[in-house]
Amino acid sequence: MAEKETPPIILQFAPLNSSVDEGFWHSFSSLKLDKLGIDDSPISITGFSGPCSHPQVSNHLTLLSESLPLEEESLIGTTSHGNRNKCPVPGILYNTNTVESFNKLDKQSLLKAEAKKIWEDIQSGKALEDSSVLSRFLVISFADLKKWSFRYWFAFPALVLDPPVSLIELKPASEYFSSEEAESVSAACNDWRDSDLTTDVPFFLVSVSSDSKASIRHLKDWEACQGDHQKLLFGFYDPCHLPSNPGWPLRNYLALIRSRWNLETVWFFCYRESRGFADLNLSLVGQASVTLSSGESAETVPNSVGWELNKGKRVPRSISLANSMDPTRLAVSAVDLNLKLMRWRALPSLNLNVLSSVKCLLLGAGTLGCQVARTLMGWGIRNITFVDYGKVAMSNPVRQSLYTFEDCVGRGEFKAVAAVKSLKQIFPAMETSGVVMAIPMPGHPISSQEEDSVLGDCKRLSDLIESHDAVFLLTDTRESRWLPSLLCANANKIAINAALGFDSYMVMRHGAGPTSLSDDMQNLDINKTNTQRLGCYFCNDVVAPQDSMTDRTLDQQCTVTRPGLAPIAGALAVELLVGVLQHPHGINAKGDNSSLSNTGNNDDSPLGILPHQIRGSVSQFSQITLLGQASNSCTACSETVSFSF
User: Fold this and answer.
1) Are strands 43-49 and 87-96 parallel, antiparallel or unpaired?
2) What is the DSSP string of 533-577?
3) Which among 220, 299, 457, 481 counts the fewest CB atoms within 10 Å?
4) Residue 85: predicted pLDDT
């Protein structure tokens, strides 16, 4: 009795899944609102994929903000190549203006149109030159920008071969190759992936010679590979992690192989990775039988399938981004990303809550004030108050980064007001305010009619310092820093001073006030950490501050400095503040010397040394750190002055 013939095993492919980053919807919303309007023409987009890199998780085709073209008229998006984790895949987006139009879309016709493109690319040979076209995809969507909700549906068109492909065998690649071959194949794959020219080429040939040497070649080199190999496999980046199924890209790959080379038996290599390197235990090698159809022709496009299932059902997906889609909230998330990444490895002990909650008072909104404000924002500091009495002049915008030409036309905007507006434009989540006020200065005579106004300014300045955690002294004159220095010492506030010469700068932090150690700081052994208070800006003066503004020439009236000084000094001033905020002793931290950076004796500060003063010269390209103790005769921070005040 004749044995029954075993029916062939139909090769089953693991479906491809999609993933859409929130940034894509944000970028698309801007494109729709600002440029597209009601234009519902198809938009060429770029998806990103790659080989599976985890034994239990498949890779997805992902849409990012960069998936959209730079110009809405562009039919092909501008995409950077050479990123091993972001292999570009061409796609098209059909966005409708109404939900009714979305529901009425002829999805089968759209799928057939994309499948036809794939078939034409196979017949024309384009797929050999750019194999990514084998993985074309399409997305249909409806964006409800009033509610920030999005309905969308992916399709990954796959040509249906008739008769279907049958599986002869499938095994881990490590079991198919000998140990010598496996080592050579792994090395060749790693070289292919490490090269910027080939890392994002998803389909390729694996040739293994009789001496167990492997090489990876482009599909267009298939003819050249004939006769010089013992094994020839058709490799592809497999996004699937399953041990018994190849991924979805193999479907169109087999259609290409059958149509171009008329092969009936195909060895394929499902390339998968682990930790960025080839993993032949995870990768698969299979043999498939591709039976040629007698009636097949280049003009006849095969049937196609490919609409993505949503939890097993043929329905679209939807997402509501009402909370996270607000641009301000997205900006907060993006701005905080760099700081949060610092905590991963570089600074695990970085206290972000301290930075986000600190309130900074900037006395002076000129060249230094603009630089300090920008750097504070970079450190995640959200609350900034400006105090300045000047207006934006025509000469300011090129040196003072918060101002533009529009701020100085006419009579000019007050700097304190313009700076606030600029910060809000840069980052809408800033809590910032501006105070237009002149700081009372010693040595400047006032009339009897001005006494009440000046006393009011003194009270107002005192209240501002009391309500902030850190004060930056960034004004143009020395005497304008005296009263703030005194008030900061009296209130025990962190005071950071930055001053510029023509080609030199000085940045320093004032020490704690003479009488305002808090109860918890009194519990510290201050004698071990700081034998004496650090000095302030006026501790080395032998005379009281005087009027330095009267009878001055134009170059003496203006802050004439080399343009590179303010960014340097402003950045150092902010770094000093952050160092104080992160130091366990805070304002009472002792002054470190730069030599500590080589001795490793500064374990208290996670950011490195915390100096008292930094002085630098760009004419000599030099910088030194100095330490100065508080003077008992200081006109700004001594106990005598503080008590009398």
Assistant:
1) antiparallel
2) PBP-TTTT-SS-----STT--HHHHS----TTHHHHHHHHHHHHH
3) 299
4) 78
Residue 488 appears among annotated catalytic residues: no
CA–CA distance, 47 with 248 (Å, rounded to integer): 15
Phi then psi for 603, rounded to 5 degrees? -80, -15
Q: In this structure, which amino acid lies at residue 67? A: S
Side-chain half-sphere CA neighbours of 459 within 13 A: 6
Rounded to 10 degrees, what is the CA torsion of 375, 377, 380, 383? 120
Catalytic residue among 360, 370, 558, 634: 558
Contact residues for 216 (Cβ-Cβ < 8 A; gap 6+)? 188, 189, 191, 192, 198, 204, 205, 206, 207, 235
Structural contact between residues 48 and 62, judged by C-beta atoms closer than 8 angstroms: yes
How many angstroms separate the CA atoms of 188 and 555, rounded? 67
pLDDT higher than 90, residue 145? no
Q: Which residues pair with 158 in a beta bridge?
A: 305
Determine the 3-state secondary structure of 591 from DSSP: coil
The CA distances from residue 567 to 11, 436, 564, in Å, are 64, 24, 6
Closest CA to 549 of 537, 557, 541: 557
Contact in structure between 624 and 473 (CB atoms under 8 Å):
no
pLDDT at 326 over 70: no
Spatial CB neighbours of 462, under 8 Å, sequence gap ≥ 6: 487, 491
Question: What Cα–Cα distance (Å) separates residue 643 from each residue in 268, 485, 487?
Answer: 86, 14, 12
Three-state SS at 397: coil
Instruction: Provide the pLDDT for residue 448.
Output: 83
| Six-digit token string for 7 | 């029916």
**pLDDT tens for residues 518-552?**
444 444 444 444 458 999 999 987 677 776 666 55
Structure tokens at 150: 């999005």
Paired residues of 289 in beta bridges: 166, 265
Q: CA-CA distance, 131 to 189, in Å (whole number)?
A: 17
